[in-house]
From TrEMBL:
Signal peptide start-end: none
Full protein name: Ig-like domain-containing protein
MF annotations from Gene Ontology: axon guidance receptor activity
PROSITE patterns named among the record's database cross-references: FN3 (PS50853), IG_LIKE (PS50835)
Species for this entry: Graphocephala atropunctata
Superkingdom of origin: Eukaryota
């Protein structure tokens, strides 16, 4: 954990965990490099999770910043191309970091119907599966099949480890190919401009 502190006179900085002052131990160590105050926890135990605060104080005042340290998986990053090479399926690929091995993944997706005058979204469809890897930094994929050709979709992903579910990924918009690949690719830019507001508004 890193806390950057600025002040004149130079502030005194103290770490707190769940309201109790952090004391250096074999697992907890602190270091200060210029304005950066670093708290290192190694190895991490379940009892380490919770709220950590860095409190800086000098004769002119006091400042506090709190961060929640959790064992849940980190933020998901969907890295697959938005353009499918198939007419009826799409290979969704994402990366995630986790404090413990992943136990479950959840993929939700829906179709977006767009024309010149309006846009309409379909119902979310959901599937869950056990990840094939126990790595803590993982690149995972899932083949979404049974899709309509020449269509626009959105997908979101969550993963779970022993400490709980990650937050939902940002919505990822993707496109399936049509029978006339060239014609569909020429229309993708038009579809993207029509669906831009929807992409940013879905939570």
């Amino acid at each position: 954990l890193v806390c950057t502190v600025y002040g004149n006179p130079t502030p005194n900085m103290i770490w707190y965990h769940e309201g109790a002052m952090v004391v250096a131990t074999k697992r907890y160590s602190t270091d200060t490099i210029a304005n950066r105050h670093v708290l290192t926890i190694q190895p991490v135990h379940r009892t380490d999770f919770g709220n950590f605060s860095c409190v800086a104080e000098n004769p002119l005042g006091r400042s506090k910043h709190t961060i929640q340290f959790t064992g849940k998986p980190g933020k998901l990053r969907i890295i697959s191309s938005p353009y499918s090479s198939s007419t009826h399926s799409y290979n969704l690929v994402w990366q995630v970091d986790s404090a413990s091995p992943l136990e479950e993944s959840r993929v939700t997706y829906r179709k977006i119907m767009i024309n010149d005058s309006h846009q309409q979204v379909g119902a979310w469809l959901e599937t869950t599966f056990k990840p094939p890897t126990s790595a803590r930094r993982a690149s995972l994929s899932f083949l979404i099949s049974g899709l309509d050709s020449s269509s626009v979709f959105q997908a979101r992903v969550q993963v779970r480890n022993r400490y709980g579910w990650s937050d939902l990924s940002d919505p990822h918009q993707f496109y399936t190919r049509g029978a006339d690949h060239e014609l569909f690719e020429n229309n993708v830019e038009h579809l993207s401009s029509k669906s831009g507001d929807l992409h940013s508004s879905v939570q």
